[in-house]
Each structure stands twice: as C-alpha cells, then as structure tokens.
C-alpha cells in the first residue's frame, strides 16, 4: 500500500504488520539496522525518540535484540521529538520511560543522550524549548546550522492525529524559525510540553510514524488522505527528507488481521 500524496515532499510508504507486538519487534530491528547502515557511512548518527505506547514498546524490544550489541553506541546521539514538561521523576516523562526501556541498558555515553528539560531544569516550557534549540544548534552539522540531521525520527500518533506534541488546531503548529516550541493547554495531559517543530522534523533523513490500534484507524485514514489539512491532521503533514514511512498494525491500518 502506498500513499499518493505528494504535496509536502517524497512519497510516503506504508508497511502493515499483523499486530502491535509484531510492529514493535519489526520496528526495533528496523531501527537498529538503520543505525548500523548509517554508521557505515557517517559519524555520529542522530536518532530522535518518541514517547507513547508503541514508541516505548519498540525500545524495549530493541533492548532485547541481538542487533543492539553490534551498534557502536558511542557514535549514536539520542534526542526526543517531544517531552512532557513535568518533574524529572514523573512517570509521564518520555525520557524516563525510554531510559527504563532501553537507554539505561546501553553502553552509551551520558553526553550522547539529549533529554528535553524537566521542570527542575527550566522555569518555563518556553525556556526549556529555547534550551533545546540551543543544544540542537550546538550539535549541528554542515547541512543545517540549527540542528544535526536526524538519521531517523520516530513518531507516535494520537487518535486525534497529533505527532510529537503538535496537536490539531494548536498554535504550536504554526511555530517557524525555531526547532523547538513550548506547548501549553495540550488536549492530552499533561498540559505543558516541549516539542520539535515541523521545520525540525522536516530536516530528518527518515521519519517513521509508528502507530498501533483500531482507535487510531480513522486518524491514519485522514492523515494519509491526499487532502490532509495540517491543522486537522498534523501527522499527515510530516515528511522526512528522503523517507517517510508509516509503520502500522492491521488495526491502525483499518484492515482485518490475516487469518493463520
Ligand atoms: O503524548 C504523547 O502521545 C503520542 C502518542 O502516544 P500513544 O500512547 O497514543 O501511542 C506520542 O507519540 C508522544 O510522544 C507523546 O508525548
């Protein structure tokens, strides 16, 4: 199945897995192989992680993959697509969940891990977003002075078609001229967040939207529809520079699971 929408960049590809467990397992292997492929030609490699149910589950599967032992983690930098602006120990933090699922189990230098601010680090989400933009700029390469070029950006998607913390109809959708934005009054708790902007996401070589569950099928359908409006379906507007991959389970794809 291939999407036919071209208005924002390269064509999107869709891969459907039988269920959420298979999606997480396959995406974990895909991610580790993508890192290995990138390490064959570049140093360092930059990956942006996502929170969310399947986003954390795939990290847990990556931890148990034999491929994880082949990656040179000293040459990998981990960033986040979004974060909940709450205390560092809050279980809602995408960072804490990702550390428990994978990062704490990797031989990766602490300086290679780039969490967004917690409330202990910044007075406001605006300050946290500005600090993240500065950190991204400090790691920038020749392609873009504002950010390193992400090899892979992982994104989950909510049932309302939000990605990262870019929610339908929210003012943060319109943020330009920066790589990170503060988000208040998020329709999904917690209300205060920090997110990469569309501009930052668009600089990635590969963007993967990893989505499971029947409750997201309608949002997938809208986002992949040719006329997807960014304000209604932010996920539909995201494109990688080289690759935009939608990784779904059958429920999110809105098709019956194959009989075995
Ligand atoms: O709040 C968030 O939600 C989305 C999707 O989460 P899910 O549990 O519905 O899969 C996630 O991608 C994002 O990083 C997170 O902050």
From TrEMBL:
Pathway: Carbohydrate degradation; pentose phosphate pathway; D-ribulose 5-phosphate from D-glucose 6-phosphate (oxidative stage): step 2/3
InterPro entries linked: 6-phosphogluconolactonase_DevB, 6PGL, Glc/Gal-6P_isomerase, NagB/RpiA_transferase-like
EC main group: hydrolase
Residues annotated as signal peptide: none
EC number: 3.1.1.31
Chain ranges of the Glucosamine/galactosamine-6-phosphate isomerase domain: 18-246
Recorded family membership: Belongs to the glucosamine/galactosamine-6-phosphate isomerase family. 6-phosphogluconolactonase subfamily.
Function: Hydrolysis of 6-phosphogluconolactone to 6-phosphogluconate.
Organism whose genome encodes this protein: Occultella glacieicola
Catalysed reactions listed for this entry: 6-phospho-D-glucono-1,5-lactone + H2O = 6-phospho-D-gluconate + H(+)
Protein name (Swiss-Prot/TrEMBL): 6-phosphogluconolactonase
NCBIfam families: pgl
Top-rank taxon, per record: Bacteria
GO molecular function: 6-phosphogluconolactonase activity
TM annotation in the entry: none
Pfam families: Glucosamine_iso
Statement: the UniProt record of this protein carries the keyword Membrane: no
UniProt keyword annotations, A-Z: Hydrolase
């Amino acid at each position: 199945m291939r999407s036919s929408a071209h208005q924002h960049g390269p064509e999107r590809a869709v891969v459907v897995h039988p269920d959420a467990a298979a999606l997480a397992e396959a995406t974990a292997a895909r991610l580790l192989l993508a890192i290995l492929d990138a390490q064959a030609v570049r140093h360092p490699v930059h990956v942006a992680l996502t929170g969310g149910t399947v986003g954390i589950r795939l990290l847990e599967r990556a931890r148990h993959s034999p491929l994880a032992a082949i990656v040179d983690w000293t040459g990998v930098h981990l960033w986040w697509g979004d974060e909940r602006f709450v205390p560092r120990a809050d279980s809602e933090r995408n960072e804490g969940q990702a550390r428990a699922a994978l990062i704490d189990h990797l031989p990766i230098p602490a300086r290679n891990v780039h969490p967004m601010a917690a409330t202990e680090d910044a007075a406001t989400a605006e300050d946290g977003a500005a600090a993240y933009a500065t950190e991204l700029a400090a790691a920038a390469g020749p392609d873009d002075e504002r950010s390193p070029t992400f090899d892979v950006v992982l994104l989950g998607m909510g049932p309302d078609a939000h990605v990262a913390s870019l929610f339908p109809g929210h003012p943060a959708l319109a943020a330009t001229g920066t790589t990170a934005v503060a988000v208040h009054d998020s329709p999904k708790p917690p209300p205060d967040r920090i997110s990469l902007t569309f501009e930052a996401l668009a600089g990635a070589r590969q963007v993967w939207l990893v989505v499971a569950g029947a409750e997201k099928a309608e949002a997938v359908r809208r986002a992949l529809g040719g006329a997807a409006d960014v304000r209604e379906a932010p996920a539909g507007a995201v494109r990688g520079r080289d690759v935009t991959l939608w990784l779904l389970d059958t429920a999110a794809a809105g098709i019956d699971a194959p009989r075995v």
